[in-house]
Specification:
Number of helices: 12
Shape: globular
Radius of gyration: 21 Å
Distance between the termini: 49 Å
Mean pLDDT: 96
Strand content: 5-15%
Length: about 400
């Protein structure tokens, strides 16, 4: 009996993430210094941890409702209203999810039908396409490499028209993983003007919103396109709470009423103790990201200076905590091989650009969610490697 032939055939489209493949391939290197993970090196704020501990001591260990704690949804609604001028009714327009990943899964499972297409500006975070594949749909990438990784209204409209009735959704992610690119108010408004003409969902992954480094604060597309937008956010990056697994979906009531169905049968509800920690983060931690932002900007600028001097082409990131750098001409443009060689020679790991789709090849991604000490050492080793024969 061979039950492996009876799996969902859509799984055949999915491979283990190249990020994980690469990580496994270099993990045997003694003392390898990794600038790979999208995980803050900061710890969760003390007041958040204390709130979760108090919830445990108070025996808050039972299910919450499927939508999550009402107090948490109220605090989240107040947070995004104060920060981003967004108005959501906590009673029926907000769902608490198990991280932004489950928020994305619940949203895509709810809206997609076999044969639908989804537009995705690329290079892009590799976690979107496998979800789309699993439900029998396909992602169509929009190549943004010729425009400094910025999606223009013209690019977007051309792609929408080309897909026609097959198109069900557009996924936006900004500040973006892996490029760190974000959008101004004028750019967001222009993209919204295009999408409002078409019956498409906009799934906007804004989990890095609090890590925006421009003078202008983050602008959510939900401000301009509320009736079409499914806003995905969370606390993993803004409050250094990756392991707490708290995300949120915010959308109009009619959309949320459908999304709660997929959310319910995927997970029932997020962990109760983690929700109490999240409640504290939203209520009393509106500025918790500021010390992290200050450190990230210093790290970003240091890496920019060092790598630019080595010949890497870099679009200055204005958010998140990643550098996406073009491998200089004359060096191996196969990003996996280039970084394998670097890791073997100097015991430093970045992420191959190819992990972020076909338009990421020839680039490397560096996470500066690591200490300055590690970053300084990594840049010394990179300079040494670029002078060696192994880099060519």
């Amino acid at each position: 009996m061979d039950l492996t032939k009876r799996f969902n055939k859509n799984l055949d489209k999915i491979q283990v993430s190249m990020i994980r493949q690469f990580d496994q391939s270099i993990s045997d290197i003694p003392g390898v210094l990794k600038l790979t993970l999208g995980e803050p090196d900061f710890t969760t704020p003390e007041h958040v941890k204390e709130a979760a501990k108090a919830a445990i001591d108070a025996n808050q260990s039972y299910y919450t409702g499927m939508s999550g704690l009402l107090e948490l949804r109220q605090a989240a609604a107040a947070f995004v209203n104060n920060k981003y001028q967004l108005t959501y009714n906590p009673d029926n327009e907000i769902l608490v999810t198990i991280g932004a990943t489950e928020a994305l899964s619940a949203s895509l499972v709810a809206i997609l039908e076999a044969g639908d297409t989804v537009l995705l500006p690329a290079p892009a975070y590799p976690g979107y396409e496998p979800i789309v594949d699993m439900v029998g749909c396909s992602v169509v990438e929009i190549d943004t490499t010729s425009n400094s990784f910025v999606l223009t209204p013209e690019m977007l409209e051309e792609a929408i028209v080309a897909q026609g009735d097959k198109l069900k959704a557009v996924i936006l992610n900004y500040p973006a993983n892996p490029t760190g690119v974000t959008y101004s108010r004028e750019q967001i408004k222009a993209l919204a003007e295009v999408m409002k003409k078409y019956e498409v969902f906009v799934i906007s992954d804004e989990v890095y919103a609090e890590l925006t480094y421009t003078d202008e604060p983050h602008v959510s597309i939900a401000e301009y396109l509320p009736e079409q937008t499914i806003l995905v956010t969370g606390l993993s990056k803004s409050h250094a709470m990756t392991g707490w697994r708290i995300g949120l979906i915010m959308a109009p009531a009619a959309i949320t009423a459908q999304l709660i169905k997929s959310h319910q049968y995927l997970v029932t509800a997020a962990a109760t103790m983690a929700q109490y920690g999240a409640l504290e983060a939203f209520k009393n931690g509106k500025d918790d990201a500021l010390p992290m932002k200050e450190a990230y900007i210093k790290r970003r600028d240091f890496i920019l200076e060092k790598m630019t001097a080595l010949g890497f082409e870099i679009i200055r990131p204005d958010g998140a905590f990643y550098i996406f750098a073009k491998i200089p001409d004359g060096y191996n443009q196969n990003s996996f091989e280039f970084l394998q060689s670097f890791a073997r020679k100097e015991a430093v790991a970045f992420i191959p650009g190819a992990a972020f789709g076909q338009f990421g090849e020839g680039y490397v991604r560096i996470s500066y969610a690591a200490s300055m000490e590690k970053i300084e050492e990594a840049m010394k080793r990179l300079a040494r490697f670029m002078e060696s024969d192994e880099s060519r």
